[in-house]
Specification:
globular, alpha/beta, about 40% helix, six-stranded mixed beta sheet, Rossmann fold, single chain, 6 strands, 8 helices
């Protein structure tokens, strides 16, 4: 059976600061580095080996993957990076403190922006310092969104999975994906057949490997968090 491991990056600096991050590129905290290394040691202790890996174009996911592969003595593995595995774009919320936004517009409105399936936050103002993403050379030739809902994130992440990752699994390769809360929700929605209403409530902890055992048609046979015991 094909085995797929999903891994949300370790704690980032803006996770720590309780800020909306999205496509903005922030690094791991020291705690996030510890999480990533622990995930690698756990995968090694449980006997996991991989043939190829996929990640986003964002530092926190890439660095998490590198730290895991270092613990597995597998930094030589092929790694494919693609923007379609990036985190959801939080638009005009980018960089803002979540608690401060709740105080400003109310908890219900922030909940809608964060947890609704198809309601995106307000678009990013072109005068925002975070609009510099559009000039970032890693996104050259890409139409960087001004905002995204979870539905929008699924619309880019799932076709990428089907075109690039599913063939590797069908070929019998053992695959690890290091990505983000919402891009991983997109994949889990498909793999586990989760409804539009239920997927928004799926919590994906940082630095915790999620193991999918799949049948030959890439349908879920089992899903579990890898733990010490």
């Amino acid at each position: 059976m094909p085995t797929l491991v999903l891994l949300r990056h370790g704690q980032s600096q803006w996770n720590l600061e309780n800020r909306f991050t999205g496509w903005w590129d922030v690094d791991l905290t020291e705690a996030g580095i510890v999480e990533a290394r622990a995930a690698g040691r756990l995968l090694k202790a449980k006997g996991f080996e991989f043939d190829c890996c996929f990640t986003s174009l964002q530092t926190r996911a890439i660095r998490t993957l590198h730290l895991v592969l270092h613990e597995l003595a597998s930094l030589w593995l092929p790694v494919t990076k693609d923007w379609r595995l990036n985190e959801r774009h939080y638009g005009g919320l980018t960089g803002l403190n979540k608690a401060e936004m709740i105080a400003k517009v109310g908890e219900e409105q922030v909940k809608i922006w964060r947890r609704s399936f198809d309601v995106p936050p307000p678009p990013l103002d072109q005068n925002s310092p975070y609009a510099a993403l559009q000039q970032d050379r890693r996104y050259r030739g890409i139409d960087v969104p001004a905002t995204e809902s979870l539905k929008d994130t699924i619309a880019r992440a799932l076709p990428y999975f089907e075109a690039e990752i599913a063939p590797a699994l069908h070929a019998g390769k053992r695959v690890m994906i290091s990505a983000h809360g919402n891009s991983l929700r997109a994949l889990e929605k498909q793999l586990s057949g989760i409804s539009d209403d239920d997927i928004v409530g799926l919590e994906i902890p940082t630095g915790q490997p999620i193991v999918y055992e799949l049948d030959d048609r890439l349908r879920r046979v089992d899903r579990y968090y890898l733990r010490e015991r």
